[in-house]
Amino acid sequence: xxxxxxxxxxxxxxxxxxxxxxxxxxxxxxxxxxxxxxxxxxxxxxxxxxxxxxxxxxxxxxxxxxxxxxxxxxxxxxxxxxxxxxxxxxxxxxxxxxxxxxxxxxxxxxxxxxxxxxxxxxxxx
Length: 125
Ligand SMILES: C[S@@+](CC[C@H](N)C(=O)[O-])C[C@H]1O[C@@H](n2cnc3c(N)ncnc32)[C@H](O)[C@@H]1O
Prior knowledge:
The chain is α/β, with parallel strands linked by helices. The protein is built from 3 helices and 6 strands; from the N terminus they run E-H-E-H-E-E-H-E-E. A 6-stranded mixed β-sheet has the order 3-2-1-4-6-5, covered by helices on one side.
């Protein structure tokens, strides 16, 4: 992430944020403009207590579902970990992630299947 997104002020969406593990790591590395999306109110409630995220979005993301109140090209990057697995998310959510990530000449996508993580950065510099 630090290699592909140099702008620490860029907005990041943490999809399947859970209790905030990614948010904590991102904050530790100086990123300070992070929103959380999760399908579990309970997880978001715990994440909220950690003051890691600017906005908490409660939504079960799946194919055809639009993230409410988020304009096209809002985020510099989307991060996910522990979410690309059975009964969680699959590739049908990509169009919506692409919609909310800024376009740019320096787009990146990385999916690590073993660790079930994904980083996608649009206008990440
Ligand atoms: C294994 S946890 C990972 C949490 C965190 N990203 C981490 O790495 O510790 C998976 C999280 O994704 C959320 N989740 C699973 N499927 C989802 C979906 N379709 N839409 C939104 N959140 C989802 C769950 O509620 C849960 O909080």
